[in-house]
Queue: 3 jobs
Job 1
Amino acid sequence: MNRETTLKKLRKKSKTWDVVIIGGGATGLGCAVDAASRGYKTLLLEQEDFSKGTSSRSTKLVHGGVRYLQQGDISLVLEALNERGLMFKNAPHLVSNQSFVIPTYDWWGGPFYTIGLKMYDLMAGKLGFGSSKHLSREEAMKALPTVEQEGLRGGVIYQDGQFDDSRMAISLAQTAADYGASVINYCKVTNLIKEGELVSGVVAIDQETDEEFTIKSKTVINATGVFSNEIIKMDEPDGNDIVVPSQGVHLVLSKDFLSSEYAIMVPNTPDGRVMFAVPWHNHVVVGTTDTLMENHSLEPVALDEEIDFLLETAGRYLVKPPTRMDILSVFAGLRPLAKPNEGDKETKEISRGHKIMISVSGLITIIGGKWTTYRKMAEDVIEKAILLGGLPDRECVTKHLPIHGFTMNADPHTDPLASYGIDKEKMLALGEEDKKLSGFLSEKLQIYKSQVTWAVRNEMARTVEDILARRTRALFLDARESLRIAPDVAVIMAKELGKTRRWRLKQLAAYEEVAKNYFME
Ligand SMILES: Cc1cc2nc3c(=O)[nH]c(=O)nc-3n(C[C@H](O)[C@H](O)[C@H](O)COP(=O)(O)OP(=O)(O)OC[C@H]3O[C@@H](n4cnc5c(N)ncnc54)[C@H](O)[C@@H]3O)c2cc1C
């Protein structure tokens, strides 16, 4: 995870990589871990920061997908439940068990969901997270003291997983680097290079210095999510669009709105979607929506109607209906959905399974999928790369590969620093070595000053936003509090990176511009 070392490698014109991956979200990082752990010369290029795209904006669930079961997508649920179990085994410092309650208000809801969730339990097999159970009205009220009690008949409790998406992304980048991959952020692919008709590498530009690199590779993987169409066009200028963005919005509220360790799952909102209210880092995350968008962006903005929908729906299930003033942070993410044909299904019905496409020139593109299935997606992609690039055939080893920081002694439910795993003590020790780094940056959000220096030294953090949005989750938990601590972050970073006052001011202005879309005026 050293940017300078990777830049030096990129300057070596004679070097040919086995695998070059474009995109540092869940999909690309998974591919980097898979390829590097099989021993291939692997390079990952991310145009901004790791998980800056969709992969830091999920509902934070590691799940089989109860909704996909409802839709009858059995193979996707089976695959996701298996991956959920593997993710928990390989990264117990990042993934934890979360109990969900479905409150039921109809006579048929209890038996219907109890049977469905028993199937869900059975499908998880040996990798199950615990069994589901029917709850009486009293038990449901005890589990969810804030849930609307009028008309409540009971509930069903079931188990799924939860994680911190951007911290998982950083740990994957570190795992790939541990196995010899070169990973770099702020390095954008601007073109593909070809030998004859075949893709033989990429052109990339360091976004910090504008230095350009011509990079040769036996295989090139397009893992750019909602940006996939742009890479496809570099390959085939007249090629058809293959993805459409569908926006999902989340609201973050104070934990008092749930005041329970159980999450709420609403399987059928008035417009036929699923809604979650999930405890996360001492707050509650409510989401999500599914809005087909015309355009994509790295900073999608929640629409007013999406916020209203979530407030209104959440209000039906919480005794105290949240208002705009209660929103501590609102974030939007874009699902890279396979483009439906004219007259096809609605976005909420498009399968969340993944799809791998190989162009005539040999460019491998992967779209769709879920965070939960990132490992299997990567395995499938690298299998294709082996064939296309004529790479020596080596078995995938990620099923039982511990993710960087692995330890069984960290509980993400109770410890806000659990995601650092075995690195936690080393990170905190920075505060003991240097008094300026001791103590909290934000006591409210339990963020320490030493996390900033650690992230610059070990996690390739380059900007104030990297720290506040993805190395810590300040922006996603409480946007105003993140703005309050931004100047302190800039000071610590400037010292570590040897930057000037001008850099600090520019960073703060850029951060304010991003953060203003995360809170309500
Ligand atoms: C609202 C919402 C909620 C979700 N909740 C869950 C959930 O709870 N659980 C779950 O399992 N899944 C969930 N998902 C799905 C999951 O988040 C996505 O499937 C996953 O994050 C997609 O990752 P990706 O790597 O394909 O895309 P991205 O994370 O978008 O990564 C693509 C990356 O490519 C980079 N890139 C683009 N162009 C270039 C270029 N030219 N050069 C270099 N880099 C480039 C981008 O900057 C970006 O970082 C959710 C999705 C959404 C939208």
Note: Residues 418-515 form one domain.
Job 2
Amino acid sequence: MKIGIIGASGKLGRLVLDHLMNLAAAEDIIAITRTPETLAAHAERGVDVRHGDYEDEESLIAAFQGVERLLLVPSKAVPAERREQQDNAVRAARHAGVKHLLTFTVSGTSPGNPFAINPALVYAEMSLFQSGIAWTIMRNGPYADEVVDWLPSIIELGTVPYPTGNGKAGYVSRDDIARTAATILVGENHTGKIYDLVGPELLSTEDLCKTVAEVTGEAVVYVPAEAGDYVEICLEEGVSEELATILATMYISIAEKRMEVRLGAIERITGTPPRSMRELMTERVAAK
Ligand SMILES: NC(=O)c1ccc[n+]([C@@H]2O[C@H](COP(=O)([O-])OP(=O)(O)OC[C@H]3O[C@@H](n4cnc5c(N)ncnc54)[C@H](OP(=O)(O)O)[C@@H]3O)[C@@H](O)[C@H]2O)c1
């Protein structure tokens, strides 16, 4: 069975690709990207690396030839562009005869969620439901990696200024998402399922601050920021206004408790629980 991944060169896609190479023959894996040169090492190991661009339906039809199961890792385009990219991918998948489509959205995807990307995510899920092709949706929790990457700033600020109030979310590492997606891609009985791929526990921002303080020994306490102030802090950190707004609205979605989803899917699917925020932070601190 040939398994395709588009978005295979990105941070998440590359991890899925690497886990998949432990579960399937390289010759059965088709990695699709606009930049095939970035996956030259995978091509050398036998992966069929193809060019494909979400903006170019013809390129997708060519890239999807012979693919039975196809994982669409969404690009980070703005929502309006994402809808067009999704339409191109689903039409091309139908044209190429793909049998099963899988994609990632985000915890709490549903109409009315204030997260700025949510309309595109709802659209992506709907487009799979209506595709006429078997589908599986994986709704990812917020990436724990991004909190861990931000540790030096958290320590400097003495707080995690997310405007989440006492809402909680299932922060999860990209690696745990990727190994679960790879398991699903080679497995059976995942058709028509929506999985919440989240960490082992739901954490409030106060919990995050306590974990940082315990792991690093630094004084870090939660002082809730207003959404507007959080955007200002991001801008001072060099984050673009667009990304700052996306992040702020994601935290408002957490504040509205839209990310307090059911735990346990990663362990049920793979047999191994996802790593906790404490483990991920401890690893990072130890690596320094
Ligand atoms: N849950 C969360 O907290 C969270 C946080 C961050 C991101 N995300 C989502 O996770 C997904 C992947 O994120 P990431 O961190 O892995 O991003 P990334 O490293 O920037 O990867 C994005 C991938 O999209 C591909 N891509 C971009 N435009 C494309 C196009 N027109 N056609 C085909 N491929 C295209 C890129 O490949 P080439 O350039 O090689 O074509 C790249 O492989 C995104 O949907 C993002 O919104 C979620």
Note: The first helix runs from residue 11 to 23.
Job 3
Amino acid sequence: MRRRGTIDEDATLGELASERPARMRVFERLRLDYCCGGASTLQDACRERGLEVGAVRAQLEAVDRDDVLLEPASERDWRRATIDELCDHIVSTHHDYLRQEMPRISDLLARVVRAHGADCLDFEIIERAFASLRADLDAHIDEEERLLFPACRALGRDGETGDELDQGTVGRQRDEHEAVGRKLTALRALTGGYDTSRALCSTHRALLESLRLMEADLHRHIHEENNVLLPRVGGRSTQTM
Ligand SMILES: [Fe+2]
Ligand SMILES: [Fe+2]
């Protein structure tokens, strides 16, 4: 095992993010996929992205040092929470955020299309891409709250029995996350990486900034489900989702 400093290059991105959530800031900055691609080792992910693993390790170690200075840890380690606490956190932090933000973003998009759609066809394509992502997410979080989380909570209360979710449920969950990840990647490409320097007006700038923040929150959200929640209820493998 290659271990230099505090970061193991053979650890997966999902493990590294779970161990110290502040590291997700580095992964976001470098566009390293730690949620749907959380089963890749740091070394493999860096090779794939053309990044020098030593330099990335140094950035992660710098974040670790800062995080220690900010004790108590700036973000909670959700691996140590109960299943109930984890599900409550995902609903109140990530699902409620989506329920609030997605209609607001749709409204911003409609205003941008009205103002600039005649000059640029891209806005209508972006509007359709976002509508498709929103429909998927609305259905996905609704199903999680009606079916998946109650099943996880029941297992959490009854952990000693060794019962687990069936693999079909776990696999379907991971597949849906991967589909969301693909739509997010497409949306990022369509909007030029959410580059606000190319914004045509203040509404367009607000739209790009809102999409960027929603993407970052979704990465965390999917990471907490794929790499923290599911492995505790039967999704032991973090193989590609
Ligand atoms: Fe969720
Ligand atoms: Fe989910």
Note: The pocket of fe (ii) ion (ligand 1) is lined by residues 90, 94-95, 141, 144, 221, 225 (CB under 6 Å).
